[in-house]
Hints:
Helix content is 24%, strand content 18%. By secondary structure, it is of the alpha/beta class. It has one domain (16-159): Adenylosuccinate Synthetase, Chain A, domain 3 (Alpha-Beta Complex). The chain has a 3-stranded parallel β-sheet, covered by helices on one side.
Amino acid sequence: xxxxGRATYQDRRRSWRVEGLxxxxxxxPFPTEVLGEAGERIRKAGNEYGAVTGRPxxxxxxxxxxxxxxxxINGFDSxxxxxxxxxxxxxxxxxxxxxxxxxxxxxxxRALEAVEPEYLxxxxxxxxxxxxxxxxxxxxxxxxxxxxxxxxTASRSAAYPPAPNARKPS
Length: 170
């Protein structure tokens, strides 16, 4: 602890890297998991397969309650959002904003298994974001999506990292 009573990590900015979607690397409760054809489409677009095993990873919609809780526990104050291009051609993008049957983040495995996500449908941007290197080059609705995630996860900002092979805007 710092003399001011704050943990020392609060004296500097901390960022948390998240993807436009959510995908845990293990088994267990996953309230926003997308199954069936839609899940397979997302998995394929995001190349969500184990690097060593090639096993398909579980994919799901962005989970605001989970990220808000993660922010509180880990003390991050900004998000770095990657893989937006996986969402490029969607008309609407579901975002879990709360769990219907509990006012707070469940504390147990069983309680998390029982939650029912409530979704808000955000407009898609129907434009290519792959390879864009600057936030200001993103479609306005993609920026709105990132702002929504930032505003609802108690982080100060959401950054868009430059793509590895970014193209220069003309």
